[in-house]
Amino acid sequence: MADTSDAYQTFEQHVERMIQVSHASRILDWDQQVTMPEGGTAARSRQLATLSGIEHELLCDDELGTLLDELDGAELDPVRAANVREIRRRHDREVRVPSDLVERTRRARSDAFETWSEAKAADDFATFAPALENLIELRREYAACVAPDRDPYRVLFEEFEPYVEFDRAVEILDTLRKEIPPLIDAIRRSDVSPDDGAFKGSFDPTKQESFVRDVLSDLGYDWDRGRLDTSPHPFQRGSPYDARLTTRFDRTNPLDGLTSAVHEFGHALYVQNLPREHYGSPVGEPRDMVVHESQSRFWENHVGRSRAFWERTLSIVREHFPQLDDLTVERAYRSANVVTPDTPIRVAADELSYHLHIVVRFEIERALVRDELDVSEVPAIWNEKMESYLGCSPESAAEGPLQDVHWSNATFGYFPTYSLGSAAAAQFRSAFEAAVGPVDEVVRDDGFEPVSEWLRENVHRHGKRFRTDDLLIEATGEPLTADPLVNYLREKYGRLYAISG
């Protein structure tokens, strides 16, 4: 077999240039959502469109295609083979998409974010509707370029999770849609009263930020390679050398800002722990959104809502909020886990009913992309589905279809990964407990580092080396399944609300 070392070296250099352009784009996107002055949108739209065009051209370059042809089937070590596999998948997909469409979409996304921000502040869905219609049309056009004979929503879902079959994703969502409502109904009938008043009051956002910073430090966030800011919708961006996160603060409830920050910390820790020796290659990048969301949901729910977390964190609470001096661990724990299905805001939803929020968004965006629903119908159908699944209807568009930033970013197909990631998180928890011990006991006795170390060893350090199911099998012994999540939710909330059977 011919020596492919020179071809691989050229391939590696080409791919690194492409990834660096992508990282630069991410930081400009972060800046737009966090610090950019309001008047900067026109220039930023063009800057991001240009970078997207350059990245697309590098990915679709004929020379790269030739290199991939030469490397296909070559005897490569597992890391190099994974890099070739990942770029081959993306190249074969994107080469069918014209650069003009990529740049138009990136420009439209940047403009739509500002429109969404204004529409949400004004509680006016009609202001955002034209931008949403344009983004849907652009994404349909993209899907038609990639695979004109396939369901466009499936094509878009593969942007965020290429290695979990869409039918299996739907099956997992269907399982959650079937299993969760009866559990919620049992909780509503329970004689156990929810304790949701422990964190009520008035809490200075500046003090909340200081509190969250101390919690993130205790969790193990590396401030030399990260930062915390506020944004209308919490998110995380960056690289192993610069993994930034944001949250937002509700003056009446410090749990909201804390929970969002711990969620984004899970993303950021994953990024900070990626193998830096492979930085600039696919293996140095995170394994798509099911695994990415599994890390945020693991820290948010399995750690941040655990009793041991509140045993460690209560002293930090009292330090920053003297009005909570009489707060007990038990009250804090129960408040962090109260089930309130009539909450219209997804990021404030409890761990259980959260998945019904995802189902609402999944069903609506799938219908939009498939042209089965008109944008003008979204507020009404949103309210109808919220009432059907959660027993509540938002009082405004800002609390309804305008609450999430995702559609302004044209990320249709992303929402299912939150629940799929939650399923993976439950699998990782089961594997961790089999190998190390119960999460509560480990955190209580040894802090958060054993959790971080297990995730670093079994998930983070692999980057994109394995496909999604292969990574899960490597770490947990089985491919993605809803069973551990369903069992975990039944056990936890059955215990909290004294539900038998």
Structural description of this entry:
The protein has 501 residues and is an all-alpha fold. It has 2 domains: 5-150; 166-496, Orthogonal Bundle (Neurolysin, domain 3). The protein is built from 20 helices and 3 strands. Helix 12 (307-320) packs across helix 17 (439-446). The N and C termini lie far apart (62 Å). The model has no long low-confidence stretch (mean pLDDT 96).
Q: How would you summarize what this structure contains?
A:
The protein contains 20 helices and 3 strands. It has 501 residues and is mostly helical. The chain folds into 2 domains: 5-150; 166-496, Neurolysin, domain 3.
Question: How would the blueprint of this fold be written?
Answer:
Blueprint: H1 5-34, H2 41-60, H3 62-71, H4 78-94, H5 99-122, H6 125-146, H7 152-160, H8 166-189, H9 205-219, E1 228-230, E2 236-239, E3 242-247, H10 254-272, H11 288-303, H12 307-320, H13 329-336, H14 354-369, H15 378-390, H16 416-435, H17 439-446, H18 449-458, H19 468-476, H20 483-496
Parallel strand pairs: 1-3
Antiparallel strand pairs: 2-3
CATH fold annotation of the largest domain: Neurolysin, domain 3
Number of domains: 2
Number of helical elements: 20
Order of helices and strands: HHHHHHHHHEEEHHHHHHHHHHH
* Helix share, percent: 55-70%
Order of strands across the main sheet: 1-3-2
User: Helix- and strand-based class?
Assistant: mainly alpha
If classified by CATH, what would the architecture of the largest domain be?
Answer: Orthogonal Bundle
**Main pleated sheet:** 3 strands, mixed
Average pLDDT taken over every residue: 96
Amount of beta strand: under 5%
Radius of gyration computed on alpha carbons: 23 Å
Overall 3D shape: globular
Low-confidence stretches: none
Distance between the termini: 62 Å
The total of beta strands comes to 3
Identify the CATH class of the largest domain.
Answer: Mainly Alpha
